[in-house]
Amino acid sequence: MAVFARPRQALAIAGVLGLTLGVTACGTGSSDNSGGNNNADSAECAPYEKYQGHSGKKVNIYSSIRDIEADRLDQSWKEFEDCTGIDISHEGSGDFEAQLPVRADGGNAPDIAFIPQPGLIQRFAERGQIKAASADTKAMAEQNYPADWLKYSTVGGTFYGAPLGSNVKSFVWYSPKMFQEKGWTVPTTWEEMIKLSDTIADSGMKPWCAGIESGDATGWPATDWIEDVMLRTQTPEVYDQWTTHEIPFNDPRVVEAVDRAGSILKNEKYVNGGFGGVRSIATTAFQEGGIPITAGKCALHRQASFYANQWPENTKVAEDGDVFAFYFPAIDPSRGKPVLGGGEFVVAFADRPEVQAVQTYLASGEHANSRAKIGDWVSANNKLDLANVSNPIDKLSVEILQDDSSVFRFDGSDLMPAAVGAGTFWKGMVDWINGKDTASVLQGIESSWK
């Protein structure tokens, strides 16, 4: 499941000052009548020269991004607006996924939407409701993003838009202080991680804690486990075949991955630290799943980068802090560094020149770095300067995404039909945690896929 919760922190002073300086330099003067901006030839506006000619035009964007994150988005493209004269209006909604199809079907689609589900992009493409990305946007995307990312917004050979923000799910959270006190070493291989788990269990502590309760979406954290392990037991190609149903959901290779995940999640010796036995995982809110680490009641919690937002107030997230995360180790390092994650894609429902200009700009290194400087943001854009990423877990995420050995794959349940990925797969994982056997669970999911 694509979830985009971020730490709700105040803006860094440096980010605010940098933004203020940028806005002042470009100015907010009125546009001339030639279709340009009267500050467009300033040095600060030089990066936006190729987007000129649309002064006075408006572009509206719709997404699920709200509150402080929406404010940060507005700030991230302010210099672009001042230098080009294009007015970007963004609307964030908690009902985005449900309302976007309604708006598109009703002829009231936004100019641009930030869509986190590749399956939803495919839906709009098949109905002819979204526009192919311009040649400039496609060239910018190919220059700045790995091919693994671009295929998720490509339908029937047509490319519809570049990624924007990203998150990395292949993390295990831990307490650096606890590890130092106990003399434990961060594992770099799956074998080392299991040995560490046994060592911790033998000391009397349940090594792992987890929670998969999430209201109507209960079960999704367990699907992330299966997807991450699937990427580690099989090739990326087999993972792709699984998410597109080219192999059945109960294929022996899927069974192997589920059982491998179960060697941790369904192991009474390993879980559920701070909460109870294995079945307590199903009733523990995902937001609370890792909290026992801060109380010394468990040592390991597999969850995405966005979990940085869930720790108690004043918890220091850093390599020398109260909590941090390490890469969920590969089982066979010779296959590269499998990375599970998610993100949103900038897709256009209109192809006016100013809309294409905004879509291209959002795929650029200029925007990636502008947004990163404001704080708490991750992108797979290879033009993103790591020096502009201040949050330590975000920095680690960007390092992983930019690592040439990384093999990225999108959240599998978001790639599957909603009735499966957000339906029987989620529910099946709850049944599995509650004691149902792997074969029966996978057969039920397979039977639901039509």
UniProtKB/TrEMBL annotation:
UniProt signal peptide: 1-25
Q: Which domain of life is it from?
A: Bacteria
Fetch the SUPFAM superfamilies from UniProt: Periplasmic binding protein-like II (SSF53850)
Tell me the keywords, alphabetical order: Signal, Transport
Q: Which Gene3D superfamilies match?
A: Periplasmic binding protein-like II (3.40.190.10)
- A Pfam family cross-referenced in the UniProt record is SBP_bac_1
TM ranges? none
Q: Which family does it belong to?
A: Belongs to the bacterial solute-binding protein 1 family.
Q: What is this protein called?
A: Carbohydrate ABC transporter substrate-binding protein
What organism does the UniProt record list as the source?
A: Micromonospora fiedleri
